[in-house]
Amino acid sequence: MKLSPDEYEPGTQTPKWAVVVRTLQSGNYQDFVSLILQGANIGRQDEVEGWSLMHLAAEYNDTQMLGALLKMQASVSVADRAGRTPLHRAVAANSETCAAMLMKAGAKLDSSDSQGNSPLHTAAICNASAGILTRLAGEAGSTELTNRKGNTPLVEAAINRSLDAAKHLVALGANAGHANARGNTGVHAAAANNDVDTAAVFLRAGCKADACNRFGVAPIHAAAEKNSAEMIDVLIRHKCPVDKTNPNTGRSALHYAASADATSAAKCLVKHNADVNLLDNDRTTPILLATQHNSERAASMLLYSNANLNQPDRNGTSALQYAKDANRAGIVDGFTRFLCR
Fold this sequence. Notes:
With 341 residues, the chain is mostly helical. The chain is built from 20 helices and no strands.
């Protein structure tokens, strides 16, 4: 490839970095090889983001360019400013061939980016192909590597709604019951996302439906807040008690549903015989909590499900009294109509 004088670094016969990058991006293999033979600096990194030619070739799924760089012994371990190696980039682009080439050249499967994510974490986050997941999981223990949040690749799959990746990682033997630094399991993540299918993958693989995190929150509590009756049904079907309480607060899923005005969840819980008058650690009932949060629909639904309006909390205040004192006009009106039937 013949270059004009202004395409060389000043005072040298070395092709400018921008020319080399542009040629790689264009996919012109012959010109790219010509530039390498003319002394192009294949180890240089972008001054802002830190990516190298190896990163670009992997990201563009360009096996020819990557092969040429590997023949010239370009580093497979070079990291960009975010700590990502070319293997991270190949995986994110779902390029199984480039990933295989990099692994054959010695790319480390336990390398981690600035968030502590290994290439397998990246694959799970991006819902990469089964082939990539299988290759990356081939090294003993790689499925149980944890990032800075304490998440394994399988938990990251749940967080990022990567259903296919979650299924494949479970099939590869990943631990479905792993809890991260906050005590959250994949079922917690799936419940927070209202992702019933992913939750089912974890539950069938043995993750406990009623596991509490460090804050005492169980998946059924998250499902109640998200107003997900379908998720609640799945969790109860997998042996989660309908009145599972947060050990720190004593609140049940019905308390969470009441405070969030989540009527679909509340109806589902009542259908499963949840205790509508269960007292939390402050002796607060779900209907009192609904009143405090001005959850009119939930308060009405609980009222017609035999909730006790007059049950006092630790301070002696009932739902009826609180509604009057706090001027909850809509709730007071609903309570009045119920009592005057």
